[in-house]
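Obj.: predict assembly geometry.
Materials: sequence records (below).
Method: joint structure prediction, all chains together.
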Amino acid sequence: MTLLRSHLGSTLRTARMNQGRTLRDVAKSARVSLGYLSEVERGQKEASSELLNSICNALDLSLSMVLSDVLLQVKSQETPVLTVVDDAA
Amino acid sequence: MTLLRSHLGSTLRTARMNQGRTLRDVAKSARVSLGYLSEVERGQKEASSELLNSICNALDLSLSMVLSDVLLQVKSQETPVLTVVDDAA
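Observations (raw structure tokens):
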């Protein structure tokens, strides 16, 4: 099942790592605990909308940039997988 | 401040009303309480990812369709507003 929090977490983690930043650095900047950010990134906790904005700000990303990436991920999971049927079998 | 839950709620409420359905009907179909759905639609409660999926299913919408609409709303709020300066004043 596609879970919004998993995709959000994945997007936030990828953005942080692409910036070469640590959990500690981003958590401090977003004023959230390191454990909270870690759980959000791993899709284990639903970020509140307010803290999601704080994390986006800490990463210098707009909410729409994050949602655009999440949307791409969700769409790719929703796309039906084409199965090659081997008639020769 | 742009809050994800406000836009999600607005999108879900608009979709339900466009389908001419009641809170009671959609809540029953999604197996959530009427009060919960009502709070989510008004942006007063964060929907868990699992219940968001249930509500999307109840509305016969994919998560990506809902997120696409949310993204448009968020983008329109983020776009800087151009102010007309009246030089004649």
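Conclusions so far: The domain at 4-78 of chain A is CATH 1.10.260.40 (434 Repressor (Amino-terminal Domain)).
To do: check interface contacts against the pulldown list.
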